[in-house]
Amino acid sequence: KSGFVAIVGRPNVGKSTLLNRIVGQKIAIMSDKAQTTRNKIQGVYTTPDAQIIFIDTPGIHKPKHRLGDFMVETAYSALKEVDAVLFMISADEKRGRGDDFIMERLKTNETPVFLVINKIDKVHPDDLLGIIEDYTSQMEFAEVVPISATEGNNFETLMTTLIAQM
Ligand code: GDP
Ligand code: MG
Asked: How far apart are CA 17 and CA 98, in angstroms?
């Protein structure tokens, strides 16, 4: 089995951290600043019977000017070419306009979208249900997977779920 997976989400939710864990080495640039990495950074996850190529898409956000517009369109067009999209949110932050903007765009896409709730190490387990309800009321997700990219919680589950989708 093989396929392409794009990781999207607003800045600082942990996309680069997850990608670093996937490839097992620090190749994605981690930064608190949006758009430090304009190019797609690809990582490969390989098991004996599966290979998944990951694409970090830092260009996906609400554009502020026309050049931004063009870059955002380019970033979104990449989402049509992948087999699955990981929409990552942070469990310790409220759903905001950045999240809603991304979901509006993901809704019109045929590609299956996984809701990845990151940073579960920062919240009480009881808070998860409310977060899941909040997002699943906005759009349909192929799967919902709570993880901690730094601690590694549910990492294997996320990979297994993705491979099952391919
Ligand atoms: P990106 O902008 O989406 O690529 O986010 P980064 O991967 O650069 O992460 C932003 C910040 O969140 C960094 O300081 C990370 O160490 C932190 N972070 C990422 N994942 C987790 C997590 O699962 N738990 C906690 N506590 N912090 C995280
Ligand atoms: Mg990043």
From this structure: 19
Q: Whose CA is nearest to atom 27 of ligand 1?
A: 119
7 within 8 A of 56, measured Cβ to Cβ: yes
Pick the CATH number of 2-165 from 3.40.50.300, 3.40.50.1820, 3.40.50.9100, 3.40.190.10: 3.40.50.300
Which residue's CA is minimally distant from atom 8 of ligand 1? 30
pLDDT tens digits for 4-49?
899 999 989 999 899 888 877 555 555 444 444 444 556 788 888 8
ipTM of the complex: 0.99
Q: Output the pTM of the full model.
A: 0.88
Q: Where are the domains of the chain?
A: 2-165
- The pair of structure tokens assigned to 134 is 């909040």
